[in-house]
Every structure is written in C-alpha cells, then in structure tokens.
Amino acid sequence: MEMENSTRDAMGVVHPVVDAAQPPRIVSLVPSVTELLCELGLAPWIVGRTGFCIHPAELVRDIPKVGGTKDVNIGKLRALAPTHLIVNIDENEKPTVDTLAGFVPHVIVTHPLGPHDNLALYRLLGTIFGRSETAEDLCTQFNCAIAALGRGRPQRVLYCIWKDPWMTVSRDTYIARMLERIGWQQWVATPETDGARYPVFSWSDQLVRDIDLVLLSSEPYRFTDAHVDSLEQQIGKPVLLVDGEMLSWYGSRAIAGMRYLDQLRQQA
User: What is the DSSP secondary structure assignment for residue 8, as one 8-state letter?
Assistant: First the structure.
C-alpha cells in the first residue's frame, strides 16, 4: 500500500516502477519537473523537453525540444518514442495531453498546490524511476529549509504575473501558498473575477488601499526595474521585483525557493 501511494499521481493513477534493465524514455513538458528529474540523476533518460526547460543548462542543452508547454509539437514528440510523459494540470493543455496519451504508455500528471506537496512529488518520481534514496535526501533538505524560514510582518500583497492586461494569482495557487509561509497574504480578486486562478484586474484607488506591497514577477511576463519605478510612482506603494522561478517553480527549486523567501522577507 505504501508503494502504491508513493506512485499515485495527481489524477489518482498508480504507475509501475520502471525496470532498471529497460531504461525509460522520458519527455517532460514541465520546466520545474525537468530540473527535478536532473536533480534525481535521471538526465540520461530524458529524451525530450520544452523550450522553457532550461535548468540545469549543462544537462538539458543537448536534449531535443518538442515546442512549448502549451504548443507541443506532437510529431516531434511521437518520433522520440517516449515511454513516460510528465505533465502538469496548470501548465499543459488537457486536449494535447489526451492526444499524447494515445501513444505514450505512461502519462504522469503532477499538480503541486503548495510547498509541502513537493515531498510527494519527490517521492512520486523517485519511486517510479528508482531514485528513492535521492528523493528522500531532497525531502530532508526541503524540510530543513522550510523549518528555517522566518515569519515576516503580515503584508497584504499583490503578485503580478502579466501586464496589458494586468494579471495576478488567486490564493488557491502554489505561488500564494509560498508567500503565506512568511505571513504575506495575496490580494483577493473582485467578485467579477473571483474564482479564476489567474484573474485579470485593473488598478483602482480601492485596490491600492487594500494592499501593502506589489510584487512584479520576472516570469512569465519579464517585469524589470523600470516597471518597478513606474508603478511605484503611479500607486505610491512599495513595489518589488521578484524572481518568479524561485516562487513558482516546485520540485528541487523549492528548496532554494525557501531560502529566497527568507531573503525577500528581510528585504521588505
């Protein structure tokens, strides 16, 4: 039962442990998971990735690209003859994944919703691909990092991921739950957009009154220091440029992400 639980993905599918005598052929459509696979020592088994799977550069450089997270080149992916495909509910389109499931034997679905979900993710991939010991080491590192995290002064924050139109995240997201670890509460969208995980919003006097701090993410929109200066002048509230990878990438990056959160807390 314990083995079954550790190989059960986000859709409830239990995946068999790979036979070491028959190395798998893995395609990852999730940048943070690609990084995690490499951390688990599985880079030699990765045969395909997205163009956004850029870490660690020295290991992924020669792995063929199959498009983006949402615009997958199905023909290229099929030609790689993968045995395993790793996807994410938020990052990949369901119709595309359904098509790929028609010829990829094992589709592993991930969906971490908060920091502690990383522990199950490490064990899921570590168990399936025979890297349980390395996965447990990552779990230990993660637990140490989150235990060392301090609590900051409570802040009402608005985390921005896009401009024209302006977009933010709901509290029901990995990013918002990361921020909660240091006592920062993500702004709640207006009734018109409430319920969306990544709502569009417009600046207003009421919104500005409701927040203490704005965070401009480095991804997916590439906010810069110039955006920070301009917005601070516009709204008269503190604005910080933050590393989007550190706050939104799960997997092994979450360990460094905890340390980054602590630095951000002290900076603010």
Answer: B
